[in-house]
Task: structure prediction
Amino acid sequence: MEIGSVKIEAGAVTFALHHRYLDGGAPHQQGAGGAGGGNATQGMCIQVMGTADGNEAELLRFDCFDDDAHYHYGPEKHSGRIFLDPTVAGNPIGWTIKQIRSNLPAMVIKAGYPEIADRIDPTIISSKVGELETMAREMDAKEHHFTRHQRGEPVIEAGNIRFGLEMRTVGNDGGPAIHLMADIADNEVELIAFDAFRIFPHYHYGPRYKNERIFLDTTLVGNSLDHFLDWFKDGRLPDMIARAGYPTVADNVDTVLLADKLKEIEATIKEMAIKDPR
Result:
């Protein structure tokens, strides 16, 4: 596991920080970017490092992700991870700082490094946790990965949501794109983006918020544009909007109006794809 380049010395241990962005299912080995594998998420990674048998060891790792936040005891010795329940744990960075402040020696012992735990000075830890929290929150805000798309043209209104249609080219890939948008506090926000690309079709939950980018398995999915349109027709959009982080918008979707507008959306985007193949 990569060790964070931003480090804070704290006596017997060192805190290492870096921001991680996991692109769920991204075929990164073929040039699509991202870390690949697992669920799409991102957030701060806070590692507790120490010296064991003369070598630097990762004692604890806290992955303070937007989704699937979890932590590891002694990643070099154990393969398990423990997930946080965000309903009771709250913000994962705040939860992590609380554990470091109150329970660090006990956690280091459980990780398998009692000799390092014996050398932890609570006074030094107490003097460093404020700096650690400030740095972690600043890095998380600064390095959070977002995607900004064009809104597309034409734009088809469907009650409290609208669909921007576009033919996109990104590098050597491209194809039809559907931008699902709504007004939030008088500002237009892209809720979900559907990129029905030739090579790496994918979609984004909350491009300007969570930016969970999930790739389709082209072995199982034939025409990605039809696949996305089938989701729309099957009534999955409200649940997807809620997952993207906009439950109020989801609750107010007019499903009857949406079903009627989908005919226009499908006909328009397919005509665009025929006229301008990417």
Remarks:
- Confidence is low (pLDDT under 50) at residues 29-38.
- The first strand starts at residue 6 and ends at 10.
